[in-house]
Amino acid sequence: MALGKLDGVSPSLSMDRELLSYRGAKPLFALTALLTTLQGLCLILQAIFLGRMISGLFSGKQIASVSSDLLLFFIVMVCRYFMVFLIKRACYKFADRTSVELRRAFLKKLFIIGPQSAKREGTGALVSLALEGVLQARRYLELFIPKMVANGIIPVLILIYVFWTDRMSGLILLITMPVLIIFMILLGLAAQKKMDDRWASYRVLSNHFIDSLRGLSTLYYLGISKLHMRTINRVSDKYRSMTMGTLRLAFLSSFALDFFTMLSIAFVAVALGIRLVDGHILLEPALTVLILAPEYFLPVRELGQDYHATLDGKEATKQLKDYTNLPTDLENMSEADHQKSLRWTKHALLKMHDVTFQYTDAEKTTLREINMNLRGLEKVGIIGASGAGKSTLIDLIGGFISASSGTVQLNDQNFAFSTQRWREQVTYIPQHPYLFSATIRDNIAFYKPDATDQQIAQAVQAAGLNGLIDHLPEGMDEQIGSGGRQLSGGQEQRVALARAFLCDRPILLLDEPTAHLDIETEYELKQPMLQLFENKLVIFATHRLHWMEQMDRIVVLHNGKIAESGTQDELIRKKGAYFDMVCAQLEGLL
Amino acid sequence: MKEWLVPSVKRHWRGLLLAAFLSLMALLCASGLLFTSGFLISKAALRPENILMIYVPIVGVRTFGTFRAVFNYAGRLASHNTILRILSEMRAHLYAKLEPSALFIRSKYKTGNILSVLSEDIEHLQDLFLRTVLPGSIALVIYGLWIAVLGIFDRSFALMMALYLLILTIILPLLSLVQMKNDHRKIAQNRHQLYEQLTDAVLGSADWMMSGRQERFLDRYEKIEKKSRLAEAKLDGYRKWRDFIAQGLIGICVMIMVIWSGHMVQNGVMDHTLIAAFALVIFSISESFVPLSEAVERLPQYQQSLNRLEQLEDVEDSTREQIINEQWRNQAKSITLDVDHVSFKYSETDDWAVHDLTLTLPQGAKLAVIGRSGAGKSTLAHLIYGVLEPTDGTVSLNGTPAHQMGAYRSAQISVLSQDPHLFDTSVLNNLALGSPDATFDEIVAVTKQVGLHQLIEKLPEGYHTQMHEAGSIFSGGERERLALARILLRDTPVVILDEPTVGLDPLTERTLLATIFTTLEGKTLIWITHHLMGTEQMDKVIFLENGRVHLQGTHDHLLMASERYKHLYALDVPQHLRQLVHEQKTEV
User: Fold this and answer.
1) For B317, which of A501, B100, B541, B588 could close a Cys bridge (C-beta 3.0–4.6 Å)?
2) Which residue ranges form the domains of chain A, and what is each CATH number?
3) Confidence of residue A559 (pLDDT cuts 50, 70, 90)
4) Locate the ABC transmembrane type-1 domain: which residues (chain B) (predicted)?
């Protein structure tokens, strides 16, 4: 249990200005203020009618003679809750609409940034932000405005009325509020501080269980998985006592809220009682004040109730906004296609001049001053140690990232990779091609949904998938991907090849497609792959040297720079970086 | 229910009762405060001669006012304390259930995040206690007490009130449960669909970008999302109406109370100072019934979590509690591993995963196992490790069947797997997992052997650096080295290497393999691999296909005898390239 889930830590009273910038927030604010004022008036009238009714009965009136008060009481009470109903409805509508806008913007951005952000933030985090995060944001947007408005208006209205009726009670209520708030904030801060101090141990303890589950097979192999049970119990116990220690403090702030509220009501009651004895006040106003006293504190108490829902929602809203506002110079997909279409031919020439790419987090490989030409239908192998920038270069050419500086020219015209018309020329095959949760047919036809059965059958044949498909109970209609039949790495790669055969785009980008496969599978894939390379511009990043024999040209990357390039024979004779790499790999193990 | 909830409730009923009692007292104090203050001012309005006449209610008001907060505080602590205890036990129980099938979780549950899902399910169940069981039962007790109090004054009215309040305590919550159950299910299904679609799209975002059809996905997604939004709006609307009606019912309740108490006073049955008391207290009493609907409404959500936990089967661990041969209590110096005509299938209807396999490995033998995925490599490893029992034939270690080694097997065989888990504790603790008795010097000695010592020394706190800080510093190869160090500490005579180098680049792979083979010299090695790099170091190479050996021999022998092997080897070591390099080298 994360501490963050516990309710009752001091509510933040800071007004979130950002909120007002959303469309329709200001009118909603005004409407809520109006309805809340009406609600407050109803609430006061309700207390007046009830007080009058009771004091009437107290002084011996007949029930029939107070029936008009009774009816009025009921009417204003219904009115009061109808106002609440209206406020909630208006706020829900606003929250719903705003959260939909947030989500739309978020998803749109997701497809502009694409795999880069999935790598950086993690797929799970992105998906849960789009699903759970948006719900939390909606909850926050829904709750925040009415709560703030209620706190601003209702206590003030009640206080005015109480002062007008009985100054003494007014004074008690007036003094309690700031004391209560100060105590809540102080205790909340103390709890927060204690939590921050222990944050590191907390993190370890709270993660311990899931960490143990993930490492279960390692524990098993080490022969301590049974023993580890004791550790789990011990850590769990430690976590509990630590949590309880913090809770003792954290709950104090709601203790303060309770304590001062109740004490204040008690003081009001006693003070009223004593002055009633003295005859300074009458029963009717005294009753009205007493009925109003709990209502005076109600908004503050409600503020504390959903405090964490609001906090989570605020955080989610911020994350959604931040993501949507991420800087990107990738071209927006909607405006991508106004340029005239593009077709890579055997005479095409692409020049990269001093192209540089820098990741925002400095740890990762960057590309520096890449000068490279791609010509016609040549086959270019990209090679280098891991971390040399091979994948980054592929991502750059594929348009998943865009260069920070340098120029790219296509047939002597300035040009950017990150456009839709370029991407539509390119087939990209990564190490682990993604299989959608769909039929094998839909997966193959992903890039060309309108392909005929015959075309698909040809692609299947070319990729060597027919053996697999013949064995599937549903044939081409077999579900694959998550939730469907699991394919082996080699079969996945064949599906990717079939996709590539089917859409037949003139440029082929490959990023380590065989590194993880067993050698027999790699051997069998080599033929269909070589067939796919025909009549295409091929850019192939790999560690596996045997592919280099089929390349027209090899580009060797070292620390994000091009170390050398040329045909395999040239590079070997040159005895440069490539030669060293090959020697290291071909040497015996020991 | 039976497995997960009942035992913890049985064990912790005292704590739960205490928590409920304290929270109940808190609510009673709040009601008591309003009741006595109504009584107080009515009494005072009679202008008694002496202030002492109202002294008791004054004390009552103050006491109730103070104790309400105290009880509330104590109640919350008590409930959290008990529930945290219950959660601890549930976690331990979950662990105990998963532990026997530790090696098969991944293949069994396909979805990678099953572990997080289960652990979150347990967290969800705390709300069952905190938000449903405790508030629900307290509200029902308050209901009973309130009716009893009324009964003292007027039995028939108490009966009427009991029936009327049933609307708030039973009928409205049940109606919401029935009404919302379907909507909740629809929303849950819909959200599940959204979750899958979106995960699919994010994982395949590169393909969507390349295809240029992103808009189409967004449109489709938007349509499903709209359905779920409409259902949610409907639910929300229903909730708003329900709350509105509940407030109306409370209003009517207040009116009934006022009329009744006026009536009672006029009949002289009740003192007129109690009118205000009853009218005030009914607000706080009936308010405590409002959360009931929400408490009940949540039930289907817990049901889902509970179902998932309950679906975990008990694993009968036939390979665990076998008669253990006492000779294995101590680590053996030398083990002869004998695989004799072993066949295995996972179930009656399956094909053979391993078929008629025979091998003899004396101490120190080195075997490479090659084959495509599904060829039976992992099954063979599990058979040798003894966590699977052969369908036919025997796997034995010095004559003892491998599956009868029980708890002693981990002292004889170590496994270096593809993705060893590094635990979220210090680097030192991670290493010490290999052998809890190892001294610091012994640990340093093995980290030096695997070539990690310098790297670890450079970490901010050396060996005491927490893994989550160091985790990103260790690369894939270094993580394997760390796991190798653990294995060296165990110093078992047999080591299974389960594709430890998948995903590493060739140079890292090469140096890692070199370290593995040097440090594990003298041990029996069973190396499952996907490349031929390094096979020349092995005594024997076997190729598995559909569970059968279809090629075997030493590297040199296979290179001579098998055309296929020659082709495969050429992928790892291209002949043309080798020749070129050779020419260049000899030129110098």
Assistant:
1) B100
2) 3-324 (1.20.1560.10)
3) confident
4) 17-304
DSSP three-state, residue B303: helix
Residue with tokens 């709560």: A147
User: Other C-beta atoms within 10 Å of B108: how many?
Assistant: 12
What does the pLDDT look like over A7-63, one tens digit per residue? Answer: 333 334 343 667 777 888 899 999 999 999 999 999 999 999 999 999 999 988 888
A57 and B262 within 8 Å at the Cβ level: the answer is yes
CB B431 within 8 A of CB B446: yes
Q: Which residues of A454-491 are buried (b: 16+ CB within 10 A; e: fewer)?
A: ebbeebbebbbbeebbeeeeeebebbbbbebeebbbbb
Q: A217 and B211 in contact by Cβ < 8 A?
A: no
Residues B181-197 have a mean pLDDT of: 85
Q: What is the total residue count of chain A?
A: 590
Question: How is chain B split into domains, by residue range?
Answer: 6-310, 337-553, 555-588
Average pLDDT of the residues of chain B: 88
CB-CB neighbors (< 8 A) of B411 in chain A:
223
Domain B337-553 has CATH 3.40.50.300: yes
Count, residues in chain B: 588
CB contact under 8 A, A572 and B580: yes
Type of residue numbered B501? T
| Separation in Å, CA of B191 to nearest CA in chain A | 8
CATH superfamily of B6-310: ABC transporter type 1, transmembrane domain (1.20.1560.10)
pLDDT of residue A590: 43
- Tell me the chain B residues in contact with residue A211 when contact means C-beta distances shorter than 8 Å: 423-424
Q: Using alpha carbons only, give the angle B290, B294, B298 rounded to the nearest 5 degrees.
A: 160
The pLDDT tens digits of the residues spanning A156-195 come to 999 999 999 999 999 999 999 999 889 888 888 888 888 7
Inter-chain residue contact B73 with A251, CB threshold 8 Å: yes
